[in-house]
Amino acid sequence: MRGAATTALVLLLTVAALTLRLWHIGFGLPAWYHPDEPIKADKALAIAAGDLDPHYFWHPSFMLYTTAAGLRIAEHWGAPADAAHAIRAGRIVNALLGTLTIPLTFWLGWRVGGRGIGLGAAALLAVAPLHVFCSHYLKEDVPLTFWVVATALAALQVARRGKSSDYVVAGLLCGAAIATKYTGLLALLLPYLAHRERSGPERGQLARFGLATAAGFLLLTPFAAIDVIGFGTGLAHEGSHVVTGMKTSALSPLPFLWTFHLRYSIAPGLGWAATGLALAGFVLALRRATPAHRLLTAFVALGYTVFENSPYKPPPNFDRYVVPLLPFLAVLALLAVSELRKRSAALAALALALALLEPATRTVALLRAVEPDTRALARQWLESHVAPGARIVLEGELVTDEGAPVVAYTPQLTGPDVTYTFSLARLGEPLSHFDYAVASSFIYDRFVRFGAGDSETRSFYRRLFSRTPVAEFSAPLGSYGFHNPTLRIYRLR
Fold first, then answer.
1. Do 344 and 394 belong together in one domain?
2. Are residues 352 and 439 in the same domain?
3. Pairing of strands 418-421, 392-395
4. How much is the pTM?
5. Which terminus of the chain has fewer CB atoms gathered within 10 Å of its CB, N or C?
6. Cis amide prior to 316 (ω within 30 degrees)
7. pLDDT, tens digit (0-9, with 9 covering 90-100), for 288-329
8. Per DSSP, what are the bridge partners of residue 483?
9. Can you give the residue range of the structural domain that contains 465?
10. Cα 248 to the chain's mean position, in Å?
11. Phi, psi values for residue 322, rounded to 5°
12. In a shared domain, residues 318 and 425
């Protein structure tokens, strides 16, 4: 009966997680509110039409192929093969993989500390704002997390049993993680540490693991072996971002004392109470000399060190890089609750309630505010209040991976009197030449809030913000992920 009750609870958590991840899954469409989605839609459309070569390696190919497969299924049910439906198909794939990470997290927690820890960790991940919102985007972070947790489970099997088949399975899953996002290379640590946990491990097993990893990667990114130059160029480009960051948003960890992702990514994305518990659980796990605890702490330590030390933290949604850490942090948080229960059941219950209710209420409140997006509201205001012929400049134009301009961080307008720029501070002509200017927090936050860029840019925004905007649009809880930037509209003359 206990097993049946556990299965029912895991199923209930999975259904709840799916509901949250599908809520507003079509946000913004057919407009582009996410700058990385259009190019992925174009590649998926070409693959669905029969060209299996993505001609694109800034990211590996797993998401492109699964999005193309989802689009073909949608076509079978009558959906047109266009960019908007390709994005919707890819988002649904991500939502499903995000949902499937919930039972995987349960099994990980169970293997680490028992049934209760597994259930609590799965519940925490199910409602975590960062995981829920990243499951809404055609991006690689949530699918990567799915493969990383699956790799962790396979690594525990390597540590426990160590059969050749265990190494092969772990390698295939590692290869899938790398074929989803290049930072999946971090997952290699898990089976390697599991291998080291075994007494007298055979060297041949590591060779099997390595071959299986390569096979898993090439199975899902096959053209990396055909277009070697293109693959190398894409991999080098992404690697350079990790090392040097983007010029407009490079942030050193030193001014934040190596707590940037802790303060701005993990705590808001998992909940402050859960984050505090996870830190306590990390310390507890360090004191427990079991393979499962060592794998947990080593992966969290390595992942956080890499992400925190990288200056590549471009707003908005820089927090997506730490998404693969969330299931492990959820398990660590429940380890702390379990330890607390040994001292006081009431205090443990209170800690668990806070750890779950805080992110759950925040997630629901944020989801309720998704539509209408501030960009849609600002567009309506501009169309109804700005006289024909007035010149408008809006910041928030970016470029895709292939250099094509895309408007995503600001209202999308048309007409000869509309000018788009990346940042108002870097406009090619004086601001006084325009009648209206629209500033987007998705751009100015990187300079004003986080201190990226040069002092001249920050001074420009301070001068601009000394004016009173004629209109301002923001969500009740502020922006989160790629939703609801704060938009300030200024009349200049």
1. no
2. no
3. parallel
4. 0.95
5. N
6. yes
7. 889 999 999 999 999 999 999 999 888 898 999 999 999 999
8. 480
9. 374-491
10. 20
11. -95, 5
12. no
